[in-house]
Amino acid sequence: MTFASPATGPIRSGAEYVASLRGRGLRVFLMGEVVAEPVDHPIIRPSINAVAETYDLAGRDPDLATAVSPYTGERINRFLHLATSTEDLVAQGRMQRRLGQLTGTCFQRCVGMDALNALHSVTFEVDARHGTTYHQRFLAFVTAMHRGNLVIGGAMTDVKGDRSKAPHEQSDPDLYLHVARRTEAGVYLTGAKAHQTGCLNSHWLVVMPTARLGPADRDYAIVAALPVETPGLTFLYGRQSCDTRSAEPGEPDAGNVRFSGQEALIVFENVFVPWDRVFLHGETDFAAMLVERFTCYHRRSYVCKTGVGDVLIGAAATAAEHNGVEGASHVRDKLVQMTHLNETVYGVGLAASHQGRPMASGVMLPDEMLANVCKHHVTSVPFELGRLAQDLAGGLMVTMPSLGELADPSVGPLLRKYLQARSDVPTEARLRILRLIENMTLGRNAVGYLTESLHGAGSPEAQRIQIRRGMALDVKKELARRLAGVDPADAAEPG
Ligand code: SF4
Ligand code: FE
Predict the structure, then answer these.
(1) pLDDT tens for residues 220-252?
(2) How far is 212 from 26, CA to CA, in rounded Å?
(3) 202 CB within 6 A, ligand 1
């Protein structure tokens, strides 16, 4: 097997993780310029810090953020662990909430975790039907990832071209990632993956199909693992609102100085993957199952946003306190409303994990209906929390001058004097909290808190389709008819 592990052994801390990303020679473009070393780029670094926090949390709280690998016997980060019990699924959700609290943004590792868990059962079932050997290859890959305690990025979303057409019907075949060529040694992949969360911050990528495929889409039915530094990959880094604030001298206007999310468009040009890293090749009949299982895991992973919601609730409460209004009944009521909405998401997400069911391969899959309902709440709840936080913050959040000016000898004293609220609260503390609310609801981390909540793991309509499929109206109508004494023979013909 050809899986490189770091020469230094497993990564055990955020600092070791950051060091492991250096010198990889990736081809990265940001704002039209080549990024020589992403680790040192001021706009990219906060996203790396967010992933580093997943390692540091594992060091501080191993019960919460690590598990023991059944393949190596060593402690590994929980993001690499395959969930074999409902307790494992619930533990993922608790860890995700904590990391949301610590970073206030997207910490990027859930996609890889959810991809591994989905692939465990799907590769097992493909082998059972087709007599292939994908599952053993997949387990060898997982074992290597456990040895290095590495970060895996799951890459599912294709750019999709004309949405009314299947992959093989597109005017340009590259609009879905596909096998352009195959040899005795492996496959060559061409195409692109969009919105790739944390891809640069990963060590390995796992590519997967994005949609249900038909027999004519055979070249598009590809699942494969590859190192992020594989030749032929180009990363076009996504801009985020207010991202250049992270590159300005001084820091307080960034709002959340340390942490941010990351998305990029990855372009594949004849990227080689050897056969031992290919986990699906041409079995179009399993593409839909893989997408559904992955989204089932990933949609309940969005409890991550409840940790971010905790930060926003705390910021809103602090802003009210700074203004001296925390005792007002409407303020308390708004904080109760924010908490009620936030806990609703967490409750449904954890319930999806508690109600998991075992797959034939031995992993545990969350409840599909509850996972979809969790994510569907996430498409609206953070927006309402954002509205309430802005309500409590007041308009100064978007009209105040740069915090850098507090240090200016002529302007600084004026700002401190006129932007003072409660006399016992330093003006700078008040303004920093407002900058954090701006960062989360309008600025850089609104990408993760709002728009990613809407479209990540599938846009709202994708969850409504799954909810419609699972709503079992016939069963429910029968319950009603029985209690109402309506003869089943009197049922209307399905229209
Ligand atoms: Fe994880 Fe949430 Fe980021 Fe998705 S949006 S990768 S679930 S932190
Ligand atoms: Fe995401």
Answers:
(1) 999 999 999 999 999 999 999 999 999 988 778
(2) 32
(3) no
**Among 53, 125, 368, 452, the one annotated catalytic:** 452
CB atoms within 10 A of CB 63: 10
Residue whose entry in the numeric block shows the structure tokens 């970060």: 151
Phi, psi of 174, rounded to the nearest 5 degrees: -80, 0
Among 383, 380, 354, residue whose Cα is nearest residue 367: 354
373 lines ligand 1 (CB under 6 A): no
Cα dihedral 8, 14, 19, 23, rounded to 10, equals 110
**Confidence (pLDDT) at 487:** 82
Q: How far apart are CA 56 and CA 301, in angstroms?
A: 20
| SS3 annotation, 352-394 | HHHCCEECCCCCEECCHHHHHHHHHHHCCHHHHHHHHHHHHHC
Is 302 touching ligand 1 by the criterion CB < 6 Å? yes
What pLDDT digit, counting tens, does each position of 359-402 carry? 999 999 999 999 999 999 999 999 999 999 999 999 999 999 99
* % of the chain exceeding 90 in pLDDT: 95
**Residue 1 pLDDT > 50:** no
The pLDDT of 112-116, averaged and rounded, is 98
Strands ordered across the beta sheet of 152-155: 152-155, 204-207, 222-227, 278-281
CA dist 53 and 484 (Å) reads: 57
As a whole number of angstroms, the distance between CA 304 and CA 92 comes to: 10
CB of 106 within 6 A of ligand 1: the answer is yes
What's the half-sphere exposure (Cβ side, CA atoms, 13 Å) at 271?
A: 27
Instruction: Tell me the whole-structure pTM to 2 decimals.
Output: 0.95
Whether 263 is catalytic: yes
Going by C-alpha positions, the residue among 34, 2, 36, 27 that lies closest to residue 269 is 27
For residue 482, the CA-to-ligand 1 centroid distance in Å is: 44
Q: Whose CA is nearest to atom 1 of ligand 1?
A: 110
Check residue 141 and give its pLDDT: 98
- Please answer whether residues 11 and 45 qualify as being in contact, where contact means their C-beta atoms are separated by less than 8 angstroms: no
Quote the CA–CA distance of 70 and 87 in Å, as a whole number: 16
Domains within the chain, CATH numbers bracketed = 16-285 (2.40.110.10), 299-478 (1.20.140.10)
| Local structure of 141: helix, strand or coil | helix
